[in-house]
Specification:
Blueprint: E1 4-8, H1 11-17, E2 23-25, H2 32-37, E3 45-49, E4 57-60, E5 63-67, H3 72-76, H4 82-89, H5 94-97, H6 102-107, H7 114-121, E6 125-128, E7 131-134, H8 135-141, E8 149-155, E9 162-168, E10 176-186, E11 192-200, E12 207-208, H9 210-216, H10 227-231, H11 247-262
Parallel strand pairs: 1-3, 2-3
Antiparallel strand pairs: 4-5, 5-8, 6-7, 6-8, 9-10, 10-11, 11-12
Bound molecules: flavin-adenine dinucleotide (FAD).
Flavin-adenine dinucleotide (FAD) binds next to strand 2, helix 2, helix 6 and helix 7.
């Protein structure tokens, strides 16, 4: 079946066109076009917008705004977003990263959504023409979402406070066994004063490891200090079983990789 593609210069007009049955928004198309090619007959038409703000990145006054059509490749090479480059490079190989957008990643089901894991740890907000909401609220409600996401925004993390790790079996561009992002602040004595930890592939969408976050407060980032957090790392998770890994395997290796992330023992094996 042929797919109709409608292009609009404003998000507003594209949002109106999306009200028609069978229409889907087109980001980079790496998932939605693939699904249509594979026979997903629920998609009969694609809608996109070329509004320039969708493709803009701004970093001002410590706040980052990334338009929803910005690709992973653009983030990975942006000089002010080096803290996020690892998370952007975690998405697919070079060809995918040239097309995959931030907006599309927010909707990507497990085992995808690696960049969204980073956004969740950064407490990003998600914007549409109707307003803003936290990425956490957005993820909880995304299945019913029809509105075009226009951008994501977050405070640029302090130097060294943001960490990201993707675990895959095929290096450098395999699909995730799991991914972990953490924003950690430490007091003068080195103990953790605030922690926000997000997990990918440990549920049907990125989730927070709230029990582990709580268990880290006031603790040092040492083997002993993090042990309570690792013991509760799996609390609230319901990992996927897929061709990459079983739910059991994901649960077994989560504390190991979270431990490495917290102790700073990450080796970057991705291109
Ligand atoms: C070979 C391959 C490897 C991949 N590897 C990874 C990986 O390692 N990690 C990973 O996270 N993902 C991976 N993906 C999945 C995917 O490429 C990424 O998640 C990507 O970011 C999706 O973005 P997109 O712009 O291509 O989405 P699209 O395919 O354009 O859209 C996906 C969904 O999101 C909706 N959507 C897109 N943009 C918006 C918007 N602005 N507002 C509202 N709705 C929107 C679409 O309507 C659609 O329902 C891979 C995909 C392939 C094909």
């Amino acid at each position: 079946m042929a797919l109709a593609l409608q292009t609009f210069s404003t998000v507003r007009d594209a949002n109106t066109a999306l009200k028609a049955a069978g229409t889907r928004y087109l980001g980079g198309g790496t998932l939605v076009v693939r699904a249509a090619n594979e026979g997903d007959v629920s998609v009969s038409g694609l809608v996109r917008s070329t509004e320039p703000s969708l493709s803009a990145i701004s970093v001002a006054g410590g706040t980052v705004r990334i338009g929803a059509s910005v690709t992973m490749a653009a983030i990975a090479r942006h000089p002010d977003l080096t803290a996020l480059a690892r998370a952007a490079r975690a998405v697919g190989g070079p060809a995918i990263r040239n097309m995959a957008t931030v907006g599309g990643n927010l909707f990507a089901p497990t085992p995808y959504g690696d960049f969204t894991v980073a956004l969740l740890a950064l407490d990003a907000s998600v914007s549409t023409d109707d307003g803003h909401m936290t990425v956490e609220k957005f993820l909880a409600a995304r299945d019913g979402n029809r509105a075009i996401v226009t951008s994501v925004s977050f405070a640029l993390p302090q130097e060294g406070s943001f960490r990201f790790l993707k675990v895959s079996r095929v290096k450098p561009k395999g699909v995730s066994v799991l991914s972990i992002a953490a924003t950690l602040e430490q007091a003068a004595d080195g103990t953790v004063s605030s922690a926000r930890i997000a997990l990918g592939c440990m549920a049907d969408r990125p989730m927070r490891a709230m029990a582990a976050e709580k268990a880290l407060i006031g603790r040092a980032l040492t083997k002993d200090g993090i042990s309570a957090a690792l013991a509760v790392a799996n609390d609230g998770t319901s990992p996927a079983t897929d061709p990459i890994a079983s739910a059991w395997y994901r649960s077994e290796v989560l504390p190991v990789h979270l431990g490495r992330l917290l102790l700073g023992q990450i080796v970057d094996t991705r291109g």
